[in-house]
Amino acid sequence: MGAATDYFLVLWGFLLIALMGIGGFFMFRKFLKQLPKADGFSQMDWETYYIDKTRHLWSAELLSLLDELVSPVPELFRDVARRKIAGKIGEVAIKKKATEITQDILIEGYIVATPKRDHKFLRKKMAQKQIDLTPYEYLFHI
C-alpha cells in the first residue's frame, strides 16, 4: 500500500469516529430527556401532557403563527422544535388557567422555550412579524 492510501484510511477512520460521536451525543441527549425526573415523569412525558391538555385551546390562526415562528429552524429539527415550543406554550396556558391560547401566551411560551443562544433569531423573526417584544423583555433574562 502506498502512503496516500494509508493517510486516506487514517482520515476515513477519524471521520467515522467523529460522525459516530456526534450521533451518539444526540442520541444520549434524547435518552436523558426520556429519563423520569423526581416526579416520575420525563421531560417528554410533560411535553405530551401539556400538548394533550391544551390541544382544544388552539385556533387555526395561532397554529399557523407557531408554524411561521418555527420556520427558521432547519427542517430536520423543525418538528422537534415545534413540539417542544407547543408543550411550553401549553404549560404557560395551564399555569394561567387560560380558556384559549392567545398571542400573548404563545409569545411568552415561545420565548421561554427558546434557548438563549437563539434569542437573536427569535427577535429577528418577531420583528419581521411586527410583534413588539417590549412587554416580554423580562422573559429574556429568566
Report on this model:
The chain is 68% helix and 0% strand. By secondary structure, it is mainly alpha-helical. It has 2 domains: 1-34; 37-141, no CATH class. α2 (43-54) packs across α4 and α4 (75-95) crosses α5. It is elongated and about 70 Å long. It starts with a helix and ends in a 14-residue tail after the last helix. Keywords: Membrane, Transmembrane, Transmembrane helix. It comes from Aciduricibacillus chroicocephali. The chain crosses the membrane at residues 6-28.
Topology:
Elements: H1 3-34, H2 43-54, H3 60-70, H4 75-95, H5 103-113, H6 119-128
Helix content: 55-70%
Distance between the termini: 59 Å
Query: What is the count of DSSP helices, taking H or I runs of 4+ residues?
Result: 6
Low-confidence spans:
none
Give helix and strand order, one letter per element, not per position.
Answer: HHHHHH
User: What is the mean predicted local confidence, pLDDT?
Assistant: 90
Shape: elongated
- Could you give the count of β-strands? 0
| Helix-and-strand structural type | mainly alpha
Radius of gyration: 20 Å
What portion of the residues fall into strands of 2 or more residues?
under 5%
Number of domains: 2
* Biggest sheet character: none
